[in-house]
């Protein structure tokens, strides 16, 4: 992530759930292949704690930070470098619900598109979103055919600008 003044993109992971225990529920490997963003080619591995029920991963673009405060043109988190709530649209979202015998995952561009993305589960299919009307993503709220299932406690890969 950025430190000092930076003008580029930052990738964000937001876990929307209560955390319980220290065991891991899933591992996310997030890769930034966007050439025009901060840290192109960088990969982050995030162990999602057990007890996490759902969350979102998105990329931010056009960011400028000084320390821990700043702003982004897309996916902004109300001046924060580390997001505690969902970012501001437009943003391509990788969404997940985990725990139990099955996990569920999808890509959403309902609130807008900002970066191309691949999202996959180790025991499921790879979703590909290369534009604002990508067939693998939720395009509108009643579009209920885009959620995919995989085995519980699976590992995930999110790649921006594949």
Automatic annotation (TrEMBL):
Entry keywords, A to Z: Disulfide bond, Signal
Disulphide-bridged cysteine pairs: 63-72, 77-83
Signal peptide per UniProt: 1-25
One Pfam entry name: Thaumatin
Lineage: superkingdom: Eukaryota
InterPro entries, sorted: Osmotin/thaumatin-like_sf, Thaumatin
PANTHER family noted in UniProt: OS03G0233200 PROTEIN (PTHR31048)
Name of the protein described by the UniProt record: Thaumatin-like protein
């Amino acid at each position: 992530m950025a430190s000092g003044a930076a003008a580029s993109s930052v990738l964000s992971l937001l876990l929307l759930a209560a955390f319980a225990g220290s065991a891991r529920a899933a591992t996310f490997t997030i890769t930034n292949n966007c050439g025009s963003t901060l840290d192109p080619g960088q990969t982050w591995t995030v162990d999602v704690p057990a007890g996490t029920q759902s969350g979102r991963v998105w990329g931010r673009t056009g960011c400028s930070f000084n320390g821990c405060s700043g702003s982004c043109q897309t996916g902004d988190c109300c001046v924060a470098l580390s997001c505690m709530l969902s970012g501001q649209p437009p943003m391509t979202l990788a969404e997940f619900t985990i725990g139990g015998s099955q996990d569920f995952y999808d890509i959403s561009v309902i609130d807008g598109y900002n970066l191309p993305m691949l999202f996959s589960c180790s025991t499921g299919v790879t979703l590909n979103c290369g534009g604002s009307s990508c067939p693998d993503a939720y395009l509108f709220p009643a579009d209920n055919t885009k959620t995919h299932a995989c085995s519980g406690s699976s590992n995930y890969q999110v790649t921006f600008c594949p």
